[in-house]
Every structure is written in C-alpha cells, then in structure tokens.
Amino acid sequence: MAGSRGDNACIKCHSEHNGREFVPILWEVNVNEFDHRKAGYPLEGGHARLECKRCHSPEHMTPDSRKGIRVRDLRRTFLGLKRECATCHQDEHRGQVGVECGKCHTFTKWKDVSRFDHSTAKFPLTGSHSKTPCAKCHKEEPSADRAKPRVRYTGIPFVRCQDCHQDPHKGTLSANCGSCHNDLSWKSLRNVAQSFDHSKTKYPLVGKHLEVGCAKCHHGANFKVPVPHELCKTCHQDVHSGQFAALADKGECASCHKVEGWKPSTFTVAAHSRSAYPLAGKHAAVACDKCHRPAGKATQYKVKFQACLDCHTDVHKGQFAAAPHKNRCEDCHSAERFVPANFTLAQHRKTRFPLEGGHTAISCGDCHKILPDGRNVAAYQFPDIACETCHFDPHNGQFAERMRTASTKNGANGKAGCEACHIVRSWHDVPAFDHSTTRFDLTGAHRGVPCDQCHKATVASIGLKRVVYRETPRECSECHEDVHFSQFRALTGESKNCAACHETGLWRPARFDHDKARFKLGGAHKDVPCAGCHKLRKEIGGRLVLFYAPTPKECSDCHGSTIPN
Questions:
Q1: DSSP-derived 3-state class of residue 388
Q2: Are residues 395 and 363 located together in one domain of the fold?
Q3: What residues form DSSP beta bridges with 295?
Q4: What's the CA angle centered on 458, arms 457 and 459, to 5 degrees?
C-alpha cells in the first residue's frame, strides 16, 4: 500500500495493520461533507438533497453486488449500488423506452422531459401537435400484472388521423383529412380550390363565399345532406326586415348586392329612378345612409319623401308655413342647388312688396337679413313694409310729420312715408315733392337751382352728413350776396329785401319804383337806361361796385350848362 504513487495511493482511503477482522474500508470523513464525486457518481438536482441512507440501503443492492461485500450488516456499507436509475427507481414505463432515463428526464425534476426530442421518434410533432400535452396521446392503460396503470409510449397507431381523432364527417368525405385540413388548426382549411373543387357541385363558390368555412353551410359536417342555395335568404338573414318583400324578386339580395362584397350596394342612381323617388340634382350625390338611417334593428329604406321637410330642416323656421307656400321648398328652390333661390321678380310682384325701380337690383340678402332674435334665421316675413324698416332716416326726423301724412295737393301720389317725396327708381329723384307746400315756394329761376345749392350738408357728431331742410334760410341775402352793399337800406327799410326791386324770374331788369326815390322819372327820362345816369363806381374789397346814390339831380349835372338853340 505504501508503495503506491500519486493520487492513487490506497492509504488515502484505507488503513492497514488493524488485524484480520478489520474492515479494510474506512471513510474518515463527515458523511454530510463527503464529496460524492470521489465515488464516481456526482450528486445532482434532487439527488443532492437526499440523505445517504435513502440510496445506500440493502434493498437497493442486487444479488450480484452483494457477493463481494464482507460486511454482514449491509446497512453499514456504502458498497453494492449501481449507477443505473433502476437501482433505486421503479421503471414507470415498464421497459417501453429502455433503462437510460437520462435521455428524457433530468435529475432536477422527473416531469421535466425537455431532453426528449420527439422529432427522433416515429411521429415527429408539428403544428398544433407540438403544443398538445403528452397525456393527450400517451394515456394510462392497465398493466399486465394489474398493478399500477402504465402510460403507453410505444405501439401507438398514428398512420391515420382517425387513429386519434373522431371523423366529424362520418365517412362522407375522404379518410385523408390532410386533403382539406392541416395540423396548424382544424378550422384553418387548405385552399379549397386545391383540396375540393366546389365548382363541380351545383353551387360553385365565388367571391366572399370562398372564405366561408365549410361548417357554416354544411351543418354537422355532413356533406351528403343537400344544402339549399337557390335564394340568398336560405342561408342569410334578411337584414332589411322584409322591406323589399313586396318587390317582384321578393327582395332577393342579388338585386342590390354581390358575392364579392356586401358593400357597396349595386343599387345605382339609375336604379333609384325606377323607385317612387327618382334622385335628381344634388340628391344624386348624397350618400345612401344620409336618408336611409337605422331604425331599430334594420336600416329604414321605406322613408317619407313627399315633402322636403321630411328629410331637411326648415331653415326659415316656419316663415312659409302658411298659404300659399305651405313649406313647399320647391316653390323657391330646386334639387340642383339650394342657393341662389329661383324666386323670380315676377313672383315677388305677387307679394305684399313688389320689387320696382332700384329695388330690382338689390341682392336678396340686403333685405332678408339674419333676425336679431337669436334664432339665426333670415327674415322673410315683415310685419311692417315701410321704407324705414330697411332704410334709416337720412333727414333725422325733419320730415317726420310730413311722412305720417299723405300728400294730396294737386293730385299727388297720396302716399305717406318716404314715398311722399321719393320714388323707388332713384333716391335722389324726388318728383313727388311739392315745394309749394312748404314755407318757401319755388318760382322763377329758383326752380332750376339744384336742391343742394340751398339745402347744404353739415357733418353730424358721428361723422355722417346731415342735410338741412327745415332750417333752410328764406331771405335772399342768406343765400345771395348783397351786390349793392346796403345802398337801399333807407328805401326798403332793410337791406335784405331784394324783392323790392328784383323778381325770381330774372335779376335784370329790375322793377324798381323810381317814384319812391328823390328823383322821379318823367318824360324822356323813363326811356333812359339806368347806366345812363348811375355811373358812380367805387372800389370795395378789390372790386368795383356801382353806386346809385348819390346820383346828380340837376339837369346840368348830366346835360351840361349850354342850352341848345
């Protein structure tokens, strides 16, 4: 023993010279700290947690291994064990898969069979089979010795799908399930055109029908039972709830829909023209669901259409509810467009306010404006159609009394308000105004003077112009310049009374009464022009003014001192 070399020295484990009865094996170590790798069998996983006696016990020793053991009490030895799992563990598989448990199981957990590669078996797992729990195929069965049931791992039939799966078609189709199905999913069929040629049947599949699962039509997967297919409603529910049942085709879906897709419908504008309500104008571009809306469980297709307000909101808020229109939108509008309206001038003449003159060129919106009552609706019914309903009074009340009283003088128009003076052809044209009814009758040259020459405008406080009519001056000097510079004050009593000499017809000749002057005209003097005697001119303010006084009164002042023979 002492002659051994290296790590193989026997003395590392055995002692000597202890007598013939001494057991030559002595583990002089703490069994709890023993490195089991020295025994040639490392403890892993669940084995590392076991007490020594769980394995090192007589019941785990085979008869062959006991022959070399000299210890009578086998409970005191660590010899006699083999490395095979069956030394300690019962073969749960009853010899079906051999004795090398480590090919499938680990020391950590018995149920962990991740080491097993099913692709090395006769039936490789693919598709949904790879996700199927083992127990679904490997089931328990009674053992030969009627002991604990064993799980079957070998000898399981797998050539046909029916070996494991029930035939839902009950033999009506081929036994080769793979012709239609795949192992990814039972409901996921292979291409129908490749698996089953439906075009050879009485009902070839086209459009969306190609995507429908067989079981949707072939209930109970019984393909021998004929499936009715003449009418769509045989398979499909009438989503229109019988609204088209009275039609000649009994409401057959194919009249408006295609198998390529339920939407959009094939019911065109041209087809709508054959209905009770042909689509025209803007209606032809309206989406179907704008009129045909859900009502309960079905979309309503039989809708009211006799009146525009059956679908449209009354934008006029009842202003045309009474006769003669009675809310008939078509009296003013058309399906081609809502704005502008087709309400003509001829139609407007039949209303309480016929359009004439300047009113014919006014756009509708200038009169029919949004009401200030918060309803956001344009006004079309006016309780008062007087001018001031639309127009403000540019005269600022100067003619308030006249506007309330109709003019009757000289057979005038007999109208009150603005029309007492103005006409609708033009505001500035006032042929109806009779100036003789005022305090200043127009005569002579005054008739040809434009109004604004006397009625001048002033700027009001808000920046608007105000034309003065009632406070217009009536005295000559208030409009005309005194060209005589008050020479006739003594004669007329006041310098402003031009009418003492002049008249409105013509400024010249004057109708001055020379008898009231200090030099009465008599004889040939009556025929002498005024300028023959009145020659005195003086410069005033840069201009020459003819002065009538003083004028010579003596004969010699005009005719000289020599008297002709």
A1: helix
A2: no
A3: 298
A4: 125
Q: Is residue 243 part of a domain?
A: no
414 and 400 in a single domain? The answer is yes
Domains identified in the chain, total number: 4
Q: What is the CA radius of gyration of the chain?
A: 64
CA pair distance 457, 442, nearest whole angstrom: 20
**Same domain flag for 520 and 459:** no
Task: Say if pTM beats, i.e. exceeds, 0.90.
Answer: no
Q: Which of 170, 208, 183, 178 is nearest to 196 (CA)?
A: 178
Indicate the residue type of 69: I
Tokens 């239609």 appear where? 180
pLDDT of residue 327: 93
Does the structure show a pLDDT above 60 at 532?
yes
Residues 492 and 561 in one domain: yes
Structural domain of residue 426, as residue ranges?
386-474
Per-residue pLDDT tens for 124-158?
A: 999 899 999 998 999 888 877 666 788 888 889 99
Distance in angstroms (rounded) separating the CA atoms of residues 11 and 9: 5
For residues 532 and 515, give the distance between their C-alpha atoms in angstroms, rounded to a whole number.
18
Q: Which of 184-188, 250-254, 339-343, 504-508 has the lowest mean pLDDT?
A: 184-188
Q: Token digits for 294?
A: 């859900």
Q: Which amino acid is at 136?
A: K
Clarify whether residues 395 and 456 are in a common domain: yes
For the chain, give the mean pLDDT. 84
Residues 487 and 470 in one domain: no
Last residue of a domain, one of 68, 87, 106: 87
Over residues 444-478, the pLDDT tens digits come to 999 989 888 898 888 765 566 788 888 888 888 88
Q: Looking at 62, 87, 112, which one is the last position of a domain? A: 87
Instruction: Locate 67 and state its tokens.
Output: 């022959």
- For 2, counting Cβ atoms within 10 Å of its Cβ (0-12 exposed, 13-18 middle, 19+ buried), the class is exposed
* Tokens (6 digits) for 379: 């006004």
Torsion of CA 421, 426, 428, 429, to 10 degrees: -60
What contacts 304, CB < 8 A, 6 or more positions away? 310, 311
Give the DSSP letter string of 252-306.
-GGGT-BTTBS-S----HHHHTTSSS---GGGGGS-HHHHS-EETTEE--S---S
pLDDT reported for residue 409: 40
- Three-state SS annotation for 221-236: HCCCCCCCCCCHHHCC
